[in-house]
Amino acid sequence: MGEDFQKQEFRLQGVGCSPGVVRGKAFVFLQRSVEEIPCYKIESASREAEVRRFEKALEATRTQIAGLAEDVRSRGATAEADIFDAHLLVLDDPAIVGETLKAMSTTGLNAEYCFNSTARRYIEFFAGLEDDYLKERVSDIRDVTQRVLKNLLGVASQGASDRFTKRVIVAEDLTPSETTMFERSNVLALLTDMGNRTSHAAIVARAMGIPAVVGLRNASLRIAQDDDVLIDGEKGIVYINPSEKTLACYTTISRQRSRLAALIEKELALPDVTEDGRAFHLEGNISGADDVESLKKFRLENVGLFRSEGIFLRHDRFPDEEQQFEEYRRAAEALPKTGTLVVRTLDLGGDKLISSSLLAREDNPFMGFRAIRFCLEFRDIFKDQLRAILRASAFGKMKIMFPMISSVAEVVAAKEILEEAKDELRSRGEKFDEDISVGAMIEIPAAAVIAEDIAEEVDFFSIGTNDLTQYTLAVDRGNEKISHLYDPYHPAVLKLIYFIVKAARKAGIPCAVCGEIAGDPAFAPLLLGMGVSALSMTPSCAAKIRYILRHTSFDTMQTLARTVLAEPEPRNIQERLTLFINSILPDSE
Ligand code: PEP
Ligand code: MG
Fold first, then answer.
1. Which of 212, 249, 326, 533 is the S-S candidate for 190 at Cβ 3.0 to 4.6 Å?
2. Residue 228 lies in a domain
3. Residues 535, 577: one domain?
4. In a domain, 249, yes or no
C-alpha cells in the first residue's frame, strides 16, 4: 500500500457529544475480541513498569472477584459463589501467571498480548480433554482472562507503555465503567462506533471533559493503530490524516470558539436572571462525590441529579450501606451550606451493568430489569441505599428521587420501603432528615400521561428526557443505526414535556429537567418558556446556558415555547431553535 494512499484525508461523521477540538494518534481499543488484543514491543527501560502493570491488573481482578464472591454468598447463592472461588484459583495459578511473565521477558512484548497468548494455550488444552470436570475449567479461564485483559487495558498507565499515553481512544463501544477506567490524563478524546448523545458512555465522557464523538458506525475498523486523527467533539466530525487545509480551517474555528468561551466566561459571575429580571435555576448532574468540585468552577450550588449508580459502576459491585453513606456524606458536605443534593436511587440495567449475577444481560435491556424495577425486587439492596442516603441527610440538604417510574403503585411501594429504612435508622438511634423530600423521575411516557396522579404522591418531578425520548419514539438511545430517529425535537416529546410541566404546576410541585437537553443551548430557553423550574446538566454546560438565558427575556422564551409547541415538523422546530440561539451567541458557526 503506497504512502500517498495512507496519507489521504478521510472524514467520518458521528454524533458530537462532548465538545473540544483535538488532534492526536489513535489507540484502537478492541475490547470485544480477544484475537485483536494489541501487540507491541516494550522498551527495555519500561519492562519493569510493564510487569508492575500486569501485577496491578491481577490484583484489581482479584479484588473484583473476591468482592463478587462475597456479595453473592451474602445473598445465599453458595453455588454461584463457588464459581467465583474457582475463578480466584485460576488467577492464582502459578503456571498461567509464571508463563506470562516469562513470555514478557523473553519476547519483550506487552502484558496483555503475552497473558492472552498464554491463557489461550491453556483454554485450548482444557477444551481438548475428555474429562468433563476439567473441561469446565475452560469457561473459568475464559472469564478470568477477559477480566484481566479489561483491567490491563484500563489500568494502562503513564510510563507503562507510551503506546497508550495521550491517545485518541477508538473503540467499537464503551460501557460507562470502561469509560471511567481510563486515566483522564492519558486520553485526548474518545471515538466509538456505537452510541448516541445520551448513551451513558457519552454522558460520562462529557462529565470527564473528554472530547468525544460516538455513533461513528465503523470507525474502529477504518481507523488504524497510530493514525493521525483530528476530532471536532462539538460537530461530531473526525478527520483521519487531516490535510493542511483542514488543519488551517480548524485553527480558525478553534480561535473563534475560544473567543466565545472567553466572552461566556466573563459573565459567569453575573446573577442568574433573565434579561427582564426573572431568576432562573441551573443545577449540576454528577455521578460521584468527587464531581461536586466541578460544580464550583461553573458556579452551581445544587445537584439536580446524582446518578448514584456511578458508585456501583466504579466498584463493579454492590457497595454496602457504609461505603455509600461515606460517599453521599462527602458529596453533601462538599456543597455550599445552602446547596441541595438530589440523589437518584439506583438506576442499573439498560447500558449500565456491573459484574453481578443479579443483573444478567438481556435481549431488550432498556425495556428490561432496570432501576426501580430492580430495587423493588431486591429490597435489601434498595434499603441499604436508602439508609445510606438518609444518614447523609444529617450532613446537608438531600432529596431522594426514584427513577423509571411507570405507575403510582411503584412510587407507593418505594415510599413504603423508604419508611422501613427510616424505622430501622430510628431503632438504631441514627439521625436523619425526617422530612426528606421525595421525587419521581418522569421518563416513561406512561408516567407522563398519569403525571397528575403521580404528583399526588411526591414533592417534585424531574423529567429524564434521555429516556423519555427513547421510549416515546421507540428508539434505543444507544443504537447508532437509528440515531437519526432519536430526536428530542420531535413534537411528541416536546408536547409530553409540556404536559408533565402543567401537571406539576396544577399539583403545586416543582418540575425540573435533568436529561441532556437541559444543557443543550437550543433547548434551554424553550424549556424555561414552558415553565420548567430548574435545568440540571453536566456542569461544564452551565456557562453557555447561563449566557443564553441572561441574554433572553422570559417573555421571549414563552413566545418561543408557544410557537414551537404549535409546529408539527421536527426539522422546522430544530431550525427555529437554532436560528434563535444563533441570534444570541456571537460568532456562531
Ligand atoms: C434521563 O433519562 O434523561 C436521565 C437523566 O437519566 P439517565 O440518562 O441516567 O437514564
Ligand atoms: Mg433515565
1. 212
2. yes
3. yes
4. no
Residue that terminates a domain, selected from 153, 184, 211 = 153
CA separation for the pair 193, 197 (Å, rounded): 12
- What are the residue ranges of helices labelled H in 508-553? 524-530, 542-550
For residues 443-471, b (16+ Cβ closer than 10 Å) or e, as one string? bbbebbebbeebbebbbbbbbbbbbbbbb
The residue to which cell 492519558 is assigned: 186
If you take atom 4 of ligand 1, which residue's CA is the nearest one?
Answer: 464
Which are the contacts of 198, defined by CB distance < 8 A and separation ≥ 6? 466, 469, 470, 477, 486, 515, 516
Asked whether residue 266 is assigned to any structural domain, the reply reads no
Residue in 197, 286, 344, 467 to alter for ligand 1 test, most ligand atoms within 8 A of Cβ: 467
Phi-psi region of 406 (alpha: psi -120 to 50; beta: other; left: phi over 0): alpha
Burial of 270 from C-beta contacts in 10 A (0-12 / 13-18 / 19+): exposed
The CATH number of the domain holding residue 61 is 1.10.274.10
Q: Residue 461 Cα, ligand 1 centroid: separation in angstroms?
A: 13
In total, how many domains does the chain have? Answer: 3
The ligand 1 atom at the shortest distance from the C-alpha of residue 203 is: 8
Whether 229 and 25 have beta carbons less than 8 Å apart is answered as: yes
Place of cell 474518545: 190
**Which residues face 503 on adjacent strands?**
none
Dist. CA 465 → ligand 2 center (Å): 7
Cβ proximity of 219 and 200 under 8 Å: no
Whether 477 and 545 map to the same domain: the answer is yes
Final residue of a domain: which of 86, 119, 153? 153
Whether residue 235 is found in the same domain as residue 302: no
- Determine the Cα–Cα distance for residues 54 and 34; give it in Å rounded to an integer: 17
User: Annotated active-site positions, please?
Assistant: 200, 514
Specify whether 187 is located in the same domain as 105.
Answer: no
Q: Which residue range is the domain that position 539 belongs to?
A: 275-584
Which residue has the least CA distance to atom 8 on ligand 1?
466
